[in-house]
Amino acid sequence: MSKNRRQYDRAFKVEAVRLVTEEGRSVAAVAREVGIGANLLHRWKQQFTADHKNSFVGTGNLSFEQAELRRLQRENADLREERDILKKAISVFSDRKK
Questions:
Q1: Of 12, 27, 34, 95, which residue has the fewest beta carbons closer than 10 angstroms?
Q2: Phi-psi sector, 90: left (phi>0), alpha (psi -120 to 50), beta
Q3: Which candidate, 26, 25, 16, 23, places its Cα nearest to that of 48?
Q4: 7-59 in CATH: which number?
Q5: How many CA atoms within 13 Å lie on the side-chain side of 71?
Q6: pLDDT tens digits along 57-82
Q7: Quick check: 38 and 30 in contact, CB under 8 A?
Q8: Domain spans of the chain?
Q9: Tell me, what's the pLDDT at 5?
Q10: 93 contacts: CB under 8 Å, gap ≥ 6
Q11: 3-state DSSP call for residue 72?
């Protein structure tokens, strides 16, 4: 028996956090009102407070830093592969001359 996890979009999370931070309402009251656990809302509030631009990026959506890191890692792997191919080509051509 698998339990389906509910997923909330970024707008829902931001609005729930806004109710707590800007309107001064308690985490427990807002959590009851929107139908989520207080611990979950508290975690969302911490994430949003720490980095509001990159919070709640979702599954598969990376922050700018994470996306840049992946791009650089891919580029590094491609360059290493090209270097290894060139090394092998040099060794093949240098053996033919002998």
A1: 95
A2: alpha
A3: 16
A4: 1.10.10
A5: 7
A6: 665 666 777 788 989 999 999 999 99
A7: no
A8: 7-59, 62-98
A9: 77
A10: none
A11: helix
